[in-house]
């Protein structure tokens, strides 16, 4: 089943290669959607793809020069796996010959694609990958979200000021660059805020796909922390919190943007009530006219509230589309230059201007799980 | 480490170990009869959990009804798996059957991705399984108490079936020599189907209890537990039912105690199982309770 799905874009790509040999120009612009559709991060990928597809339905074409091109989405599954992600990215640039790559949910997966898009000079726009290393030193990778040094500070501030926590324990997904990075930024800022070099009692690890965390949590319980910071994949995190409550740990849990998936609540149920996380966008506070357009279209189509990363998926598509239009060309380097020149682009999740490291500077939103829903708590502006 | 803390770790380890034991029995039974490692066992485990989930979520059955139906359906799937993937290859070289088993495993996983979707599903845990018990310094969930009881009940039942019943006698005969058993008018196919059915039934038991303890399903959830329980079966002496249970408990205890005492090594958690396998294979290749007999594979 997967094979037949894979063969089709290959055939299309081959046909296009054939065309390019002749005088005929390509008639479509191709956006490669590089996301985890199976494996540990599948829900994250699916939510971003929802946003991209919605944007594609509203804006299905782009004007390049004086010609109108249809935009085709080529969705590949990077299977939540770093090795598979490299293969998938390679396929997008080599076989599918996409003009721009969108994605991926998960910093590790985006980082696997980094050298590949850089090598082929195909610009890539990450939607919610927050690790600084995704775009650092790679002048073809952009992102429409903030980065983890900011996110870590936001949560450390929340822990130290709002919760008045003095001692924290960190539980991180050690095989995930996002989780390890964010944990470090949180730790640095929390130690500074509490003026206590020993404010982090312990940093405990687990692996992606682990299901039993009782050994780590039993250790946590004996340390009696005021707060537990556990950034990581949503299902593992939900299981961690559930098992912590079962062991009798009552300290509040804080996490990052990856928690915001329906599965987090679906798996954690009662246990994740009160869990606090930072994310990109809250439907309760639309920011730009595009926010409203996005929310209306999404609610009409899906009859539910979108996740923040869905809004970012929507934005990634629009930013890429606008850059292609301004570049007036399908050449990767020209599109990259047009992306660099993006100024105050009104996206659904806020205005997008890329800084010198190709990151968007945006405010963070803090949400809490309340009555089985992610509920808006507050907005934190960047310094 | 205080004694209270140690007891809590031990309770955690026993709960995990008994789940491993439950699944390891299935590997060992099939191997005992057919000298076949059923690589699809972990995926049968996954199917069991999904069938129970859909029984409860779609058909709104009470949990015990979906539990019973899921176990029956999964047992039938196990029998079917043997019919389709293994029986036609019974007289082929061992390696062909093994490759067929690996193929069956991939097939089931990928069909499951298409049918159930790649996104994980949250399981509604029955209230009786979700009671928090505080026994002195040790906190456990009722499901963690139920699992070891189940495991030992099933162990006793299996030992009785294999040791005392006519079917069990036939199983032992088939295990000793398949052709000689056939000459004694034993319906070999029926015995093999029975073995696969009961092995899959145990996998379903394990899968459903697993989903009550870790209430999250995804189509690849059987891969790692499958591998680990295979290791447990080999460590205990593959082909030996008590050995599988022993191996399962050992694996659970070693895994959790290693993390408890050496928290910095947590990232290598899955490696502990494989290190244990290597050590046991080097020291006692037939496993802890296995009876050694030279065999060419």
UniProtKB/TrEMBL annotation, chain A:
TM helices/strands, residue ranges: none
Domain Leucine-binding protein, first and last residues per copy: 28-366
PROSITE patterns: PROKAR_LIPOPROTEIN (PS51257)
Tagged with keyword Signal: yes
Top-rank taxon: Bacteria
Ribosomal protein recorded as keyword: no
Alphabetized UniProt keyword annotations: Signal
A Pfam family: Peripla_BP_6
Family: Belongs to the leucine-binding protein family.
Matches recorded under PANTHER family: LEUCINE-SPECIFIC-BINDING PROTEIN (PTHR30483), PERIPLASMIC BINDING PROTEIN OF ABC TRANSPORTER FOR NATURAL AMINO ACIDS (PTHR30483:SF6)
Protein name, UniProt field: Branched-chain amino acid ABC transporter substrate-binding protein
Native source organism of the sequence: Anaeromyxobacter diazotrophicus
Automatic annotation (TrEMBL), chain B:
UniProt topology in membrane: Multi-pass membrane protein
Family annotation (InterPro entries): ABC_transp_permease (IPR001851), BCAA_transport_permease (IPR052157)
One GO MF term: L-valine transmembrane transporter activity
CDD domains listed in its UniProt record: TM_PBP1_LivH_like
Keyword entries, A-Z: Amino-acid transport, Cell inner membrane, Cell membrane, Membrane, Transmembrane, Transmembrane helix, Transport
GO process annotations (BP): D-alanine transmembrane transport; L-alanine transport; L-isoleucine import across plasma membrane
UniProt entry tagged with the keyword Transmembrane: yes
Main location, first listed in the record: membrane
GO cellular component: plasma membrane
TM region positions: 12-37, 44-61, 97-118, 138-162, 191-212, 218-238, 245-265, 271-291
Keyword Transcription regulation attributed: no
Superkingdom of origin organism: Bacteria
Compartments where found: Cell membrane
Pfam family, one: BPD_transp_2
Family of this protein: Belongs to the binding-protein-dependent transport system permease family. LivHM subfamily.
PANTHER family assigned to the protein according to its UniProt record, in alphabetical order: BRANCHED-CHAIN AMINO ACID TRANSPORT SYSTEM PERMEASE PROTEIN LIVH, HIGH-AFFINITY BRANCHED-CHAIN AMINO ACID TRANSPORT SYSTEM PERMEASE PROTEIN LIVH
Name assigned to this protein: Branched-chain amino acid ABC transporter permease
Organism this protein belongs to: Anaeromyxobacter diazotrophicus
